[in-house]
Every structure is written in C-alpha cells, then in structure tokens.
Amino acid sequence: MRIAERLAAMLDLGRALALAALVVFAAAPAGAAQDARLDPLFEKLKAASDAREAQIYENAIWRVWLEPEDGAINSLMRLGLDAQNRGDMFGAFAVYDAITGLKPDYAEGWNRRATVLFLLDRLDESRKDAEKTLELEPRHFGALSGLGMIAMRQNQPDKALEVLEKALALNPHMANVRGQVEQLRKKARDGAI
Q: Which domain holds residue 82?
C-alpha cells in the first residue's frame, strides 16, 4: 500500500473514531427490549408462500435491525456500513467497536462487528460477537448463518449443521443456507461428518 493510500485509510479511521468520541457524550442509555415491530415480521416471514414474499419481510427485519431508534447510533451505523461497503474493514471495525461500546445492548452492532472480524479471518472473535448478537436477539438468523460459516471454516461440520438448521427454522427462505444444510446432511448420511 502506498503512503497516500495509508494516509487516506488513517484519515477515514480517524474520522470514524472522532465521530464515535463525540457521540459518547450524546448517546442516551437504552434498554435491551426487543423492537415490537419484529414479532409480526417474523410471523409473516415464516408464513410467506414464496421467496419473493419472504424477501419483503426479511428486508423489513433487516431495516429494523440496522436502524436503531438512537439517532447517534444510527449515524454511526451508516458510517460503518459505508466503510464496510468500500472494503475498509479496519475503519468499519473501529465504528462497530465504538457502537458496541456506546450501546452494548444493540444486537446489530455486535453482528456487524462479527461480520468484519470474520472477513479479517479473526474467527474466534467473530464467533464471540455472533454469540453476543444472539444473546441480545435470539432470532438473528444472520448471526446464526455467520456461526455456521465460522464452524465450517473451523472444520466443525456438526456444529455448522446445528446452527444453520436453527437459522432456517427462523427464516426458512434462505436458499444458500438451505443448500449448505442439504450438503451437510448428505455428508452426515454418508458418514463424512
């Protein structure tokens, strides 16, 4: 990486950390209560008749998870997602780390941090953050899918099958997860697990 690129990356990280520091004083403590909008969305997701209908409810669930009612945390989340979408995993991690510090009961902050840690191949840390996500939001099919991917990378197919089946129980319309489950079940039947 050239010096100019390193400086640009450091500036992005610096902006994220500065914003996080400013938010520390503005962030109000919040309770860990589940968002009331989620229950009916999960019911509709399970009852969806096809993948297109299911996608509507899945997207609505993700919107609830990604947009906390706390405006400052919401702003930070957008900053983290932007960094992640640009491929700036270190900048994204810094923002998500700030979010989990400021609002430790916000499940999606932990889930996003888990995702970045996975992409950085820090699997044990990613697993811990995914588990924290599930502690706060037990229905988080994204975190369960992530745990399945971690287990597969760590050559734990039995654990992968277990958590991916839980993810499908919550969201039966995830085609890629269903495919992974079918492959793992076949391996189990063939004695390869």
A: 3-24+37-189
CATH code of 146's domain:
1.25.40.10
Name the nearest CA neighbour of 131 among 109, 113, 147, 155.
147
Q: Which two tokens stand for residue 51?
A: 């993948």
Q: Is residue 51 part of a domain?
A: yes
Name the stretches of the chain with pLDDT < 50. 3-4, 6-7, 10-11, 14, 16-32
pLDDT of residue 193: 76
Q: Please give the Cα distance from 163 to 127 (Å, whole number).
A: 12
Classify residue 128 by burial, with Cβ atoms within 10 Å: 0-12, 13-18, 19+: middle
Residue 155 is assigned to a structural domain of this protein: yes
Domain count within the chain: 1
Residues of the chain with pLDDT > 90: what percent?
76
